[in-house]
């Protein structure tokens, strides 16, 4: 039995969140995939690594897979995931990330993220700037995005914020 009042509450919550998301939303589409609001947290200038986040939505009928990421500002961009090991949250590299049909995969602090290793150009890693990044999918191919660098995490990922 579907709980209608619960569904209603979820819809209201979504409607309340929307204006905040749209305030600085930017999004990319290729085939059945949508990439919403790529962003990165501004870190101290000597931070060894920087993470990038976004939300992938698959509006199609078949799964796709994010297999790699690259950006001209870093030697490497690795796909990482956070996992619980006992009481500790640790991050580890993953080979690829599946995006199921009709599904959404969120890259956010404490979840999946893209880790930029070996930073070559830090000039764009400041609040208000953005840098280019390309996501490579098994079926859809390459999607080029601009990653917004911001001091403040987007409101919807605020509760999950951390640095590493
Ligand atoms: Cu990481």
UniProtKB/TrEMBL annotation:
Q: Which Pfam families match?
A: PCuAC
Q: Which InterPro entries match?
A: LpqE-like, Lxx211020-like, PCuAC_sf
Signal peptide residues on this chain, from the entry's feature table: 1-25
Keywords tagged on the record: Signal
| UniProt-recorded name of the protein | Copper resistance protein CopZ
Please tell me the species this chain comes from.
Answer: Pseudomonas versuta
